[in-house]
Amino acid sequence: MEAMNDCGATYWYRLMGVPFWQGYVEALQVKTRVVMAGDGPPILFLHGIAGTLEAHLNLVPRLFQDYRLVLYDMPGRGFSDFPDRPYTVDYLAQHLVALQEALALGPALWVGQSLGGWVAAWAAAHYPGKALGLVLNNPGNVKSRPEALERLRTSNLNLARNPTREEIRSRLSWLFHRQECLREEDVAIRYLAYSRPGFARAMEHISAMLVPEVRARYLWRPEWVSRIDVPTLLIWSRGNPLATREDMAEVASWFPRGRLVELGASGEFPQVEEEDAFVALILGFFGSS
What we know:
40% helix; alpha/beta; 13 helices; Rossmann fold; eight-stranded mixed beta sheet
C-alpha cells in the first residue's frame, strides 16, 4: 500500500477504496461500536482513556490488505453504550475478550494505546490464549503520580459536564508533539461523543481509574506482567507528556518476551504523528511473531 502519512487528510479521504464495515456488536451486554476491514490474522485496536476508535482509523488503509482489523469504542466511550458501573481495567479486559469471542475471531493480535495498552496487557495476563502478540503504545499508568491524576480527573469531569470544542482541542493539543497532526475532525468527533446524553455520568466511571485507591489494584507489577507469554512490543515516544523512558524501560523488563523501542517525533499518538514508522513496527513485529 502506498504510504499516505498526511496528517491533514480526513478519515473519509483516507478510507476511499477501502472496503469496511461499521456497526454495533453486543459484548458483555454492551452495544459496542465497531469498525472492521480486511482479511487475514485479526488485530484488535484499543484506544486511550477517553478516546474513540478513530485513534487508529488512519491505519486501516495501511494494514487492511494484510490483516483483519477490528477497531472499537470501549464501554462508556465514543458511541458505545454507557453501562452504569466503574470502567476499571479488569472490566475493560473482560469486555475485550467478550468482543473477540462475539466476533468469533479466535486468538488475535492486540494493539493498545495509553489505557488501551494497559487493558491489553492485563487481559493477556489474565486470559491466557486469547492474545497472539501485543503492541503496547505508550501504555498507561507505568508510574502513578497522585497529584497529576487528581488534576486530570478534575479536568475530565469538568470537560464532560460542559464540553466545548476549545477545551477538547486544548486537551488533545497537550498530547500531540506535532501540532499539525491534530485534526479538527478529531476535535469534532470527541465533541459529539462528549455531548451525548449520559456522558457526564460515564466520565465519572471512566475517571474511576484516576482515583489512586482504585488504580492501585491494577498497578503494573512483575507478579502479573511476568505471566504474559506472548511477544510484546512496547513503544515509548520522546514527546510523551505522561511517562519517561526510564518508567517504560522498567516495565518492559518484566515481560518475558518484551522489547522496548523509542520513537522520536511524537507524543501520545505516534500512530498518527509517525504513521510510517508505526506501520513498519507493526508489520515487522507481528510478521515475525
